[in-house]
Specification:
The chain is α/β, with parallel strands linked by helices. 36% of the residues lie in helices and 21% in strands. The protein is built from 18 helices and 23 strands. The strands form five sheets. A nine-stranded mixed beta sheet has the order 13-12-14-15-23-22-21-18-19, sandwiched between helices. A seven-stranded parallel beta sheet has the order 5-2-6-1-7-10-11, with helices on both faces. A three-stranded mixed beta sheet has the order 16-17-20, with helices on one face. α1 crosses α9. The protein starts with a strand and ends with a helix.
């Protein structure tokens, strides 16, 4: 296939309809047909990236291999398709404007008046096209964040309108809307969808395909009505019902011919639908897994999306161990030495969650002490690993004031400290170790046995590090530093070999766990938690 084709995914009526899941599903289905695909997300907010956003605002911050802090939808793209995204796959209004302003300051526009059209829209188009041309993708799926009618997304819609005009059959517009069910009337209502499409048409975009999110099954009469009122072919009106799992969405979309409709609109030959064998096997195992394994997430954000990738990693690992992972959020702010036994009761394993800042850290330390002394499988991620290190220093090494410089500037036992080169940086954004880094594992360690490899690469997102001055003391008392970065000598992994499963990683393994390639650490952690349950 010669030239790249572009699929634009927009949303209407309400936000949070699952554009990311639909985009990921399209990517998965086209990939299964042998096409080389990628997916990018345009977010209309003015932040340069979501790295400085509170998870309550925007869910988790997902990190790409090249160290870009991005929207959590990129996690869905990677989990569904197994592709690796980069900073080119995530763009915000802030980055677009910054790029244009930087060019203007350099004099690139030769004294022209800078305007939304053409300068901002050209920059958006450049970012969309560049991705396709550089890597020679067959399809680039571009998801526009927000909802039609938002003032922020107007420049993105104008850019799409222009691109559809320029590309002709090489561009397809897919619009995702919501069809509510009115209980009092006992009816599904298509009017919001009609208004949403009208809004889209008013900016010059006629959708080719409509995906209708619904909690109730839509019969053909409803779809025909939508097709007639919205100028869309009947076989291009697809319904996306609520399903037990997001991983069933690609199968549902394939059964309704979404990928075939896209190919037809692009003038591509439509061959028989691929089998999706491994994907269906995963779903079958997931449906059959009725036995439960209970995992406690000890963290401070009482919000599902704040630990999205961790939840998905644990859930996938449960499936591959033929168990259903039941996740219990345990708020670390409320944990005390008096109530920890009660709070962690019935848990087969504990994850000490990542995070930033002081809030809820003492509760994480209390949880780590309890699981260490009661031999409960424990997985500490990033800040979670640092809390395991601090707990060990306080209660085993005997340093009562041990802490991280992040929490206590004046601690005399700074077992977690900031790297020298970071000390003078005052800007919050972009001062961390971000993205994929090498790690060498110690042969014979528990972690080495899990990975079955000496050299690994994992993604980071943090500013503070294990203080190597204490390494020998930790090892002497039974906490081993078994993974380190070969260049900086920074410690990446700690473990207690005498414990069933007590491992802390400075990196975020959840970013690399996908549906068809679950992460070895999650797999082994869940496997041990299941064994722990049986004892």
């Amino acid at each position: 296939m010669a030239e790249t084709k572009y699929i634009f995914v927009t949303g209407g009526v309400v936000s949070s309809l699952g554009k990311g899941i639909i985009s990921s599903s399209i990517g998965k289905l086209l990939q299964a047909r042998g096409y080389k695909i990628t997916i990018q997300k345009f977010d209309p907010y003015i932040n340069i990236d979501p790295g400085t956003l509170n998870p309550y605002e925007h869910g988790e911050c997902y990190v790409t291999v090249d160290g870009m802090e991005t929207d959590l939808d990129l996690g869905h793209y990677e989990r569904f398709t197994g592709i690796q995204t980069t900073k080119a796959n995530s763009m915000t209004t802030g980055r677009i404007y910054k790029s244009v302003i930087d060019k203007e300051r350099r004099g690139d526009y030769l004294g022209k008046t800078i305007q939304v059209v053409p300068h901002i829209t050209d920059e958006i188009k450049r970012n969309i096209k560049q991705l396709g041309q550089k890597q020679q993708y067959d399809f680039v799926i571009t998801e526009i964040g927000g909802t039609i009618g938002d003032i922020e997304s107007a420049p993105f819609l104008e850019a799409i309108r222009q691109m559809r005009w320029e590309l002709g059959k090489r561009a397809v517009s897919l619009h995702l809307t919501y069809v509510p069910y009115l209980n009092a009337a006992g009816e599904l209502k298509t009017k919001p969808t009609q208004h949403s499409v009208k809004e889209l048409q008013s900016v010059g975009i006629q959708p080719d395909i409509l995906v209708l999110r619904t909690e109730k099954h839509l019969d053909d009469s409803v779809r025909k009505k939508v097709a007639a009122f919205c100028n869309v072919d009947f076989d291009c009106v697809i319904q996306s019902e609520d399903l037990p799992s997001i991983y069933e969405v690609p199968i549902n979309m394939q059964e309704q011919g979404l990928d075939a409709a896209i190919l037809r609109k692009c003038g591509e030959e439509v061959k028989p639908a691929p089998e999706l064998g491994p994907w269906k096997t995963f779903l079958e195992r997931r449906q059959k897994a009725t036995e439960e394994v209970n995992i406690g997430l000890v963290g401070k954000y009482d919000l599902q999306d704040a630990y999205k990738s961790i939840r998905e990693g644990l859930s996938q690992a449960g499936t591959y161990n033929d168990h259903k992972t039941v996740i219990h959020f345990i708020n670390s702010e409320n944990l005390t030495t008096e109530n920890v036994a009660e709070q962690l009761k019935g848990m087969d394993g504990i994850v000490v969650c990542p995070g930033f800042g002081q809030r809820g850290t003492e509760g994480k330390i209390i949880a780590a002490q309890y699981t260490r002394t009661h031999n409960i499988p424990t997985f500490g991620i990033c800040l979670g690993m640092q809390m395991m290190v601090i707990e060990f220093a306080r209660n085993v090494l005997g340093y009562a004031d041990a802490n991280s410089r992040e929490m206590d500037e004046k601690t005399s036992h700074n077992v977690i400290d900031i790297m020298e080169e970071q000390k003078n940086i005052t800007n919050m954004g972009g001062t961390m170790r971000l993205g994929a880094y090498e790690c060498v594992l110690r042969q014979g360690s528990h972690t080495f046995d899990i990975y079955k490899s000496e050299h690994i690469q994992e993604r980071h997102r943090h500013r503070y590090e294990f203080n190597n001055e204490y390494e020998r003391e930790y090892e002497k008392h039974g906490m081993m530093c078994v993974g380190r970065n070969p260049e900086s000598e920074l410690i990446e992994i700690v473990e207690i070999p005498s414990h069933k499963w007590y491992i802390g990683t400075q990196f975020h393994p959840e970013y690399q766990s996908t549906v068809l390639a679950p992460h070895p650490l999650f797999l082994d952690f869940i496997k041990t938690a299941i064994q722990n349950k049986k004892q």
